[in-house]
Amino acid sequence: MIPVSGIITNNIIENTKSEWFEILTRKIDFLQSSITDDFNAEQSKLLSILKELKSKLVIDLSNSEESYKTFVEILNDKRFDKYSLEIFAPNGKLIAWSKSVAINQNELFPLPAPLGDTYFLEKPLTYYISIIDTIHIDSDVFYLTANYPIESKYSLNNPFYRNINFSDRCSRRYEVECKIDFNPFTSPTKDGKKFSFELLNNNDKKIGLVTINKPTLVAELNSIKEKSANIQSLLVFLALVFIGLGLKTDYRSLISLKIKFTLFVFYIVIVRVIIFLLDIPSRLIEGPLSEPANFSSTFAFGIVKSPIEFLVTNFFLVLIGIQFFRYTYIYLLNRETGKTNLFIRTLSLILFPLIVLLMRGFAAAIRSVIFDSKLRYFKDPDILPDFTLLAMHLNILLIGFIVVVTLLGLFNLLLKLNGYSIHKNNSRLLIVSYVTLFIISFLMFYLSKEPLVNILILVAFVTAIILVNYQIIIRSRYSVFNYVLILLVGSIFSITLLNFFNTRLEKESLKTTAYELNRIDENLIQFYLREFINQSGSDAQLLSSFTRSDLNFDALAFIQWSKSILQRESMNSFIAFYDRFGTKKGSFEVGLPSKEKILFNKIPLTDEVVFFNEAKNPIEKNISGVKRISESGITRGFISAGIDFNISKLAASEIPDFIESNLSLLNQVVNIKQLKIFLFLNGELAQVYGDIFPSREQIKLMLNTKLDSTFSDGWLKIDFSGETYQTYLLKTFDNGNEIITAISVADKEFSWNLFNFFKVFFVHAIFILILFVILFFIRIRKINYTFKTKILFAFLFVSIIPVILLAIYNRQIVDERSKESIFNELRQRTDYVQSHIESQIKKNKNRNIIQASENASNELKISFSLFEGTEQIFNSNEKYYRIELIDRKLNSDAYYHLHYLRLKEFMTNERINDYVFDAYFRQFRVENKEYILSVNDAFNKIKIPFSTTEIDVVIFGIYSFAVLLIVLFSTIFANQISSPIQKLTKAAEAVGKGDLNVQIQHKAKGEIKELLDGFNLMTMELKRNQIELAELERESAWKEMAKQVAHEIKNPLTPMKLAIQQLIAAYREKHGDFDKLFDKVSNTILTQIDNLSQIASEFSRFAKMPSLKIEVIDLIKVVNDTINIFINEKVKIILDTDIQEALIEADSNQLSRMFINFIRNSIQANANKILIKIERKENKFEIRITDNGTGIPEEIRDKIFIDNFTTKIQGMGLGLSMAKRFIENINGTIELESSSEKGTTFKIIIPAYKKV
């Protein structure tokens, strides 16, 4: 197939070259029709909204007396949140609007397009697809407008930014550069490399122009080759899979586990390497999963170069780990070995350091996940991760599983090489091995120069591995749910290490922050400004704007700023545009004001950027740059930009959250707002960032800290306000000035650590639960819904449901109180503003309300808006309204509640993109005029006692821990309650199958004790009664038999007696026919002797066992059912077989009784381990029953199969003899293969069922 695909590819390439013109035409037609269809879909949505609105307005208004109020209600339906909807009165007054306003009151007339026609509406920051229509109500004509944002002009590196860009969407979807001009008068491009086509509205009128880059032949050929390479890669992969499937039968027929494992590993490694060389799956999957920045490691030549490659590698390692564990476990339990010599034992000691090194490798892998990735697992408090983080969480879980399962496999190997055997007591070996592992772990830890983990994590991990190893080899045996346990342990320690190394990374990030702060010097800032100004100055569209006076230059400035490094680094900065006379046309500034006019002595005479430094001291950096914009030597205007870098103004303290960057390079690990920064200049505290000012003693402590002589840095712990802070100090020199930078971050509280742990464990638990459900459905027929299971679920349901409900209730209470606190805080600030304004107006009669509002904003440092009617007349943050990032119109919800419902105050949510904030509105009167005052928490930072984030941390962490404890204790209690019942159930089942020797060992108290003691007494009485009844029945049977035999014997004896008497009489009388008579008498006697022989045979058959119910049964099932009877006995019973089904012809009840008798005999011989091994040898099944009991004395070994022979006081001597008789009746054999003080082995051979 692969050569064929290569030939086909070459043919396609040749055809493409020869028919490129036709192909190009088809591609352009496809692009044009596809983009047009996409646009028409957007247009249709708008038209359907308009139609729905008109219908709803006509219907609702016909039943309403308050038309304007109904207008507002309908437009603010949640279904229309994505649209800007307005209703204008016949005179053009805006009377109703939705949550966002696209067309203001003075923008309706003249109509921009005919009624009912869609068109593109250009606003300073956004393009809308819009439509204006009319509705007729009571002979009045109202204007209805519907607008849908189709493309934003700006972009922000911000989690709240909603990227609306139809051009980019088309470019990504069709893999072609697409640009849309929203002007209906734009002419098609004349560039031969591009193609333009018109966008038509609902009435087939041109409203815009789409320009795309024409596909090139080279790009098309490369695309064909890439697709062909992808197909060939898949074919190679499928070929490898089919090769593996084809060799599956031969692989299974192999006997040697070493050879099987070696071949398996070789195949898996080869497949993974080939996949890596073919660049699968990165070649097929694009996006964050294949992005190396999200995770990349140099391990194995970059085989884990992205999250998806990491996942594929882990998948293959999981397969190897599972096989390694399985084979070593089989080797541990099922293989008999000779005496281990000193050399093998010494060689096995190498496994101890190997186990410790694997633990270190585990820590190194998790460290790589933290340090070799830009992903931050604990920075944000969000519980549910995005898809990329979800994939990495799965990787982390798989790493933990791989390491734990491999460690257990190594431990299995270690134990076997040191003489572990299921036929003996291994307690001493286990204790010595476990202690040795601890000792070597400690030695390697303390001998290591740089241990990756602390001693506590090491001890916990080693202890967990030991406990899991003990649980699996001693208690759980072959349970498939052992893998769930391994996953759970791997998850716990992978998360622990993740949190541990994240803490280290956070500590290292303090050092990074200190170096970054000192890296930002005058040269770097000038570089930033030069790049930004030159980039803005080369924008052709911006250059053509300098000659226009109708543009919003503030919005243009914001657009340029939003796409620059100034926004990305959240710097206090500005950008301003000036006309050719140096007068400002517009600007956007955050934390640094721009000049209203450029002084003539500072106007550059060339097109180079001129810089000015207005810093007041050596550690401040207030730099601005100006560049002349000219065309053909004629000055058109100027562009100026500036940056103010000051420690006290870090973290965008003056930049609102809705435009703040989330990509700042200053510290991507810890939220910089959590840091406390202190800058010392020549031994004096010069700048402080944060809400903590150090005391004199704390300053002295920081200055006197001994620093490293090489790197001039150091660490210390310092207490601020009762909290311990980790602090990093860095000393640098600048122009002879000594500068010490101190960066501090608070140690995490216990609740945060709990939250971080359970946040990841919650995701891991979902994966584990999915595996558990899969295993459950696979084994659903084998799972018994036991009393223990039912009572456990009952405990969990009764315990966890109230905890969850309590957590939800507490969360709701906190949320309500948080809203109440915000409401009270905003109301209080509104009180301050209202009082301040009213006081000014009262004292200064000539002062208007706008001037009073400006004074109140400046003096109170409170940001607010003032409305007269529905129009805004003042705002403390005017720049965001000038650029129309925020609507000037009164919030529609507030308008409805204050105007129509006559409320005096109202609080609602407002939105900027996806940033949601609270806004408080209040009506008040000043000099007989009604005003509305609004204060929000977007511009006013509000501190509440407990934020919802902090409460989420506490609730999720503490309650998750509580749920974990509930699960643990519920399991323990359910086991304690159900264990006696389970023992009683199994014992009753054994009694039902004829085993009356069962006795329940227990330490129960109360009613359970009485129940179990009563059962034991019952079985003893049943045993005694059985013996007595058997004796009575035997005696009675023999008496009856004697009568029957006597009667039957008399019948032939009578004719024999008569015949003999007749023969004697004839002899005495010398009868002439004596010879003839002799023959006759002889025949008669012989006939009667035959009758007597027949009677003896019938009696012999009567003395045999009852008749057997022979049927086809599964030997494996019978043995498993029998083993389950003894599940609560203090004995470990192991079934060793590779056979899935062993069909024989036998009586299942008799076979079960036979195995019960063998197991009971072993238990009575003090055995604690019993191995039942079943193998198929040609047409027979060979069963070996081996125990580690006291064995059978040599002098009685020949008598054990004799009827009525027993060594037990109350025994009947029928067990082994009946077993032998039963086996022989089904054409099998039984023999004592070996017996000693170390144990006994019986060998049974049963013919396999031959299908006809």
Write the layout of secondary structure elements.
Layout (H helix, E strand, L loop, with lengths): L1 H17 L1 H43 L4 H9 L8 E5 L5 E4 L20 E5 L3 E12 L2 E13 L13 H9 L3 E4 L12 E7 L5 E8 L3 H30 L1 H6 L3 H21 L29 H28 L7 H7 L2 H21 L15 H31 L9 H21 L7 H22 L5 H38 L2 H16 L2 H6 L7 H10 L2 H4 L3 E8 L4 E7 L19 E4 L7 E11 L2 E12 L29 E7 L2 E6 L6 H8 L9 E8 L2 E12 L2 E10 L3 H29 L8 H57 L5 H12 L4 E4 L2 E5 L2 H5 L9 H9 L4 E8 L2 E12 L2 E8 L11 H45 L13 H63 L5 H30 L7 E4 H11 L6 E5 L6 E4 L1 H17 L4 E9 L2 E8 L27 H11 L3 E8 L2 E9 L5
Parallel strand pairs: 25-27
Antiparallel strand pairs: 1-2, 1-5, 3-4, 4-5, 6-8, 7-8, 9-10, 9-13, 11-12, 12-13, 14-15, 14-18, 16-17, 17-18, 19-20, 19-23, 21-22, 22-23, 24-26, 27-28, 28-30, 29-30
Tell me what you see in this structure.
The longest helix has 63 residues. Helix 8 packs parallel to helix 11 and helix 20 packs parallel to helix 25. The strands form seven sheets. A five-stranded antiparallel beta sheet has the order 2-1-5-4-3. A five-stranded antiparallel beta sheet has the order 10-9-13-12-11, with helices on one face. Strands 15-14-18-17-16 form a five-stranded antiparallel beta sheet, with helices on both faces. Among the domains are: 204 residues, 2-Layer Sandwich (Beta-Lactamase); 109 residues, PAS domain (Beta-Lactamase); 81 residues, 2-Layer Sandwich (Beta-Lactamase), CATH 3.30.450; 140 residues, PAS domain (Beta-Lactamase), CATH 3.30.450; 112 residues; 137 residues, Heat Shock Protein 90. A hairpin with a 2-residue loop joins strand 22 and strand 23. The chain has 30 helices and 30 strands. About 0% of the residues have low confidence. The chain is α+β, with helices and mostly antiparallel strands and 1252 residues long. Keywords: ATP-binding, Cell membrane, Kinase, Membrane, Nucleotide-binding, Phosphoprotein, Transferase, Transmembrane, Transmembrane helix, Two-component regulatory system. It catalyses: ATP + protein L-histidine = ADP + protein N-phospho-L-histidine.
